[in-house]
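It is worth pausing here to work through a concrete case rather than discussing structure prediction in the abstract. The textbook approach is simple: state the sequence, then state the predicted structure, then interpret. We follow exactly that order.
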Amino acid sequence: MASLTKAVNAKAAEMVSFLNKSWTQFHAVDTAKNTLLAAGYTQLFEYHTWNGKVKPGGKYFFTRNSSCITAFAVGEKAIIDEKEPTPGFAVIGAHTDSPCLKLKPISKLKRGGYLLCGVQTYGGGLWHTWFDRDLSVAGRVIVKKHQAGNQDYEMEERLVKIERPLLRIPTLAIHLNRKVNSDGFKFNNENELAPVLSSVIADQLNSGSTDTSADHVEQDSSKKQKTKAASENDSKDEDLCVNHHHSVLLQVLAQDLQCEPSDILDFELQLCDVQPSTIGGALNEFIFSGRLDNLACCFCSMDAFMEANAAEDALKNEKNIRMMVHFDHEECGSRSSSGAMSSLLTDSFRRIIGALIEEQGANYDTERITQRCIHRSLCVSADMAHALHPNYISKHESNHGPLMHKGLVIKHNVNQRYATNSVTAQFFREIGRIAKVPLQEFVVRQDMACGSTIGPITAANTSMRTLDVGAPQWSMHSVREMMGTEDVEHAVKHFTAFYTHFQETYDRFKFEF
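Step two, the predicted structure:
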């Protein structure tokens, strides 16, 4: 009998590996950074000058806040001339963050004989899906770096990812909530969404206490820990984390970071489902994972960007500047220094153009040239789309039900929740025709609210023509999401073609673009 299971799609397998490394936006950026460095890209820093460093034919990247990354490749024919058409920017933008639960600045809670962690809801998550999951923590930690022979210390940023189950948010048994199936699962985010870290008794046994009764434990925990920390470190300034977070949590973090708990000064940690991202379905046709929105588009845009620039002569005849940017904070409005509402894109444009002008030894006005370049540019806002759900067919407009395995989705909204217009949509369709990949269209029902993306924000901030696209998925904003494997390959091919065929497609638009 022939084997039923299809071979695993290679690009989908690569993306699953990326997802398993990228539990947080910090890890996603670190993975992208290391991938670019391995491919020969030069890292730049925003606090350094770029003059003398950015040249035609070069490939570069920089990060901001460790949660946002921008990469660009300069065509060898990207020449600045006030009398000739300027280079344009071919940009694909995505975002690194996903809805999740994040630890509060003071996370220490104790109820009913158990240690819990206080959390904040980040973004618009389907929070009921976080119950009864094996959870852990990941993020960035600020750690003391001791100097030999010196009582003072430096501070460094470290990434942490505890890969074993550490926390759980247990649901209430049906015997204590008889109407849950008829009335729906309802809970209070402040009081009933706190994950359990440890039992008080187990924590006391770990700390060596002789009294393990629940009533005795931690009655004066803050005072005891402060005294212990002061005696060990002889500094009140070092008590902050000890007072704000459970000591057992700090011990777990310190073990992973290979430091002392007292060396941990602060952190930004989020809860993560420890179940690995994987390929599933009867024919290996699906990806089951958290954070598909929007790390799937981050992977596809990065893979396409690198593929477009991989060949030795890839930039030889290129007149434009290819760019990939992965913002942070889209899920909470993009209003941050590393979000799409920041000046990051315009800062990048000005600095790249300024460096190229300097490289040519010209004396052009950088601001004026940059504005001209922007108006010869186009941005693809890549964020996941809603696939037609077989159990909720009526939730889609009858003519706009994107299917998995059928390619990227152009997203439309006349009220500018998406930035797509007829020109940018047709531009992307032409790219798809060249790449020979399928393409779909989406518009939300008139009686439903429409979400938004970085697209309208980018268009408004930069005045750059923009469109919104995404790969179709189910369970968006759940702790566990789902998409089709074939759409990874479709997206990579489409995005690669966008970079490599940008100029020829632009030139075919015989009207004021």
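Step three, interpretation. The chain has two domains: 10-98+290-507, 100-273. The first helix runs from residue 10 to 21.
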